[in-house]
């Protein structure tokens, strides 16, 4: 499967990553088969490693594309080594830049660096990731797992670490977010699809100048959707909770948010430089949605209820409708 260098993108095969002057080009392509669909044949390309006593890779690149030709995995600047200190091949690899997303589109990780230590079990042909580290700016995630086959993918992984808001902004261009999140997740892809759990501890989260918020989120992964089972947040001297479903691929996502006891004056200060003196508390019931992780489709609607609070200021009471569309928030009320 190795061949002398050819012009990148030449021929009918897929285009390869734009790394400079490859010493060898390896193209693995599965052309469409005529007739009815067949059962997938397990694929384990790493079993080629058992034929090597040692192996070194410098400045390598890998790209996997969807059927429409767009990439969902790209690894550039790969430095890797393999040896066999025992019976099973062991190796380590470093990736300068990685980009990965769900094969069906949606969320993508861009500009991520990675390191991994792997071992192939010759008896089971399972590729075990003994330790992996993903880094991006101040984000550092560590984990481990195993890959039993690809085509179809059978794998499991677990790990966690600190996620900086910069990573979220790279995943969803145009998102205005700051703060940090401590995450812990487990994941398994089997014949029935993808499933797992996700737990987040949120600190100093600010979204579109609203915050900071602190709290915790627990979610359950089923195939390409993350169900938010519980979300509890504190901010503006009040409490909030939420639930909903988030699409990890292309598709729609929605969250139902409820809050009570929010300090109205502190909340207004997020939108105006000098807020009026207000002695009032706010309760909110909102629904927010987004399609295909495009912030231009971010929209929401709900109801705000005001009640007099303690301290000096205007003790507002009443209700208002609120709507989010085209990156703007609008309010409508009939008597506050």
Topology at a glance:
Layout (H helix, E strand, L loop, with lengths): L53 E12 L5 E13 L6 E12 L6 E14 L4 E11 L2 E11 L4 E11 H7 L5 E14 L2 E15 L2 E13 L2 E11 L2 E10 L4 E12 H5 L11 E12 L7 E10 L9 E8 L2 E5 L4
Number of helices: 2
Which runs of at least 5 residues are low in confidence (pLDDT < 50)?
Answer: 1-20
Reading the helices and strands in chain order gives: EEEEEEEHEEEEEEHEEEE
- Rg (CA only): 25 Å
Q: Bin the strand percentage.
A: over 45%
Large-scale geometry:
elongated
Q: Percent of residues in helical segments?
A: under 10%
Annotation, overall tally of beta strands: 17
| Structural class by SSE content | mainly beta
- Largest beta-sheet details: 17 strands, antiparallel
Question: If you average the pLDDT, what whole number results?
Answer: 82
**N-C termini distance:** 73 Å
Structure characterization notes:
This protein is mainly beta. It is built from two helices and 17 strands. It has a 17-stranded antiparallel β-sheet. Strand 9 and strand 10 form a beta hairpin. It is elongated, with a radius of gyration of 25 Å. It starts with 53 loop residues before the first strand and ends with a strand.
């Amino acid at each position: 499967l190795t061949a002398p260098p050819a012009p990148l993108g030449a021929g009918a095969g897929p285009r390869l990553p734009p790394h400079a002057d490859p010493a060898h080009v390896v193209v693995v392509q599965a052309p469409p088969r005529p007739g009815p669909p067949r059962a997938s044949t397990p694929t384990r390309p790493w079993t080629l490693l058992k034929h090597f006593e040692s192996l070194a890779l410098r400045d390598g690149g890998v790209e996997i594309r969807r059927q429409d030709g767009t990439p969902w995995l790209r690894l550039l600047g790969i430095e890797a080594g393999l040896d066999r200190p025992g019976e099973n091949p062991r190796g380590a690899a470093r990736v300068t830049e990685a980009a990965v997303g769900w094969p069906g589109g949606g969320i993508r990780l861009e500009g991520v660096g990675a390191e991994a230590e792997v071992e192939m079990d010759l008896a089971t042909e399972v590729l075990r990731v003994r330790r992996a580290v993903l880094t991006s700016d101040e984000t550092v995630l560590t984990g481990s797992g195993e890959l039993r086959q690809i085509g179809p993918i059978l794998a499991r992984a677990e790990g966690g670490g600190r996620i900086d808001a910069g990573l979220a902004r790279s995943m969803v261009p145009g998102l205005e977010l700051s703060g940090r999140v401590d995450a812990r997740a487990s994941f398994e892809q089997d014949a029935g699809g993808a499933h797992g759990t996700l737990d987040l501890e949120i600190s100093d989260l600010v979204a579109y100048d609203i915050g900071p918020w602190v709290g915790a989120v627990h979610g359950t992964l089923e195939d390409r959707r993350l169900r938010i089972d519980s979300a509890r947040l504190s901010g503006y001297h009040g409490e909030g909770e939420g639930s909903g479903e988030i699409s990890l691929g292309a598709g729609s996502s929605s969250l139902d948010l409820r809050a009570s006891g929010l300090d109205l004056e502190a909340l207004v200060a997020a939108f105006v430089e000098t807020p009026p003196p207000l002695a009032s508390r706010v309760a909110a019931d909102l629904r927010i949605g987004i399609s295909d992780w495009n912030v231009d489709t971010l929209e929401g609607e709900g109801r705000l209820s005001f009640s007099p609070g303690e301290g000096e200021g205007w003790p507002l009471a009443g209700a208002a409708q609120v709507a989010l569309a085209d990156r703007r928030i609008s309010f409508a009320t009939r008597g506050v």
